Write the structure tokens for this entry.
Amino acid sequence: MPVSAGGVVDVADVRAAICDETTVVSIMTVNNEIGTIQPIADIAAVVRERKAAGQTHLHLHTDGVQAVGKIPVDVRDLGVDLLSIAGHKLHAPKGVGALFVRKGVRLSARQFGGHQERGRRPGTEAVPMIVALGAACELARERIGDRGLHTGELRDRLESGIRNRIPNVGFNGDPAKRVPHIANISFGDVHGEGLLISLDLKGVAVATGAACSSGSVEPSHVLVALGIDRERIHGSLRFSLSESNTEAEIDDVLDILTEVIERLRVDADLDAGTQAVSGSD
């Protein structure tokens, strides 16, 4: 689906895209790179309209990985048929996840050999991992208000500090419809990969795109979809925050970031000057 400059899907575009052969509409609740929150409940209403009109094989799935544990999520309010989550995004172990399946939705098996999980997926369940995910979800529900307030304050402190201290920057994503724990920022006249490495050497962990594809040198398809030019995309970083971060850490990041970007921009200017001199010869 196309998106706005802030990364939001237009419900009218979804309605127009659904045809008689469509079986699944799948939209992320929250985009993992820019933190934009999608209008899932409104999209669910469109899907229900089609179902009521006789398209009963149509279902709505949402990837709730960056939403569950970060913002309130209720499958009844969203109206989705399927919602998937990953444990490690809310402090459960890596390697465990969950899929909500609305009553009445029938899933076909894709793996065979056993009758576990009601015949949907064979193999012995990792019970300790499942228990850990359940405990993490309970803690997230108890703390979600405080977590959101804390990470939102840290994100605003980070963005405000960058605006005040570093020239030629841009902020990617919808400024209002977003989660509190993600900031995607473009830094002009520097390359994101070099910036990422320099920050990593100083103990600051960031990403140049989706964390699961951080080894890729291709420009982020998410930022491309926003219509951002390639140079700005290549200078973009994603900052992810959690309840364990502190104001002191944000201030340290601002000091380190300011120093690193100033150095990288000076080096880039020197390289450009050397190339110009070489070209004149």
In short: The mean pLDDT is 91. The helical segments are 11-17, 40-52, 75-78, 127-165, 192-201, 221-225, 230-234, 247-280. The chain has two domains: 11-140, 144-280.
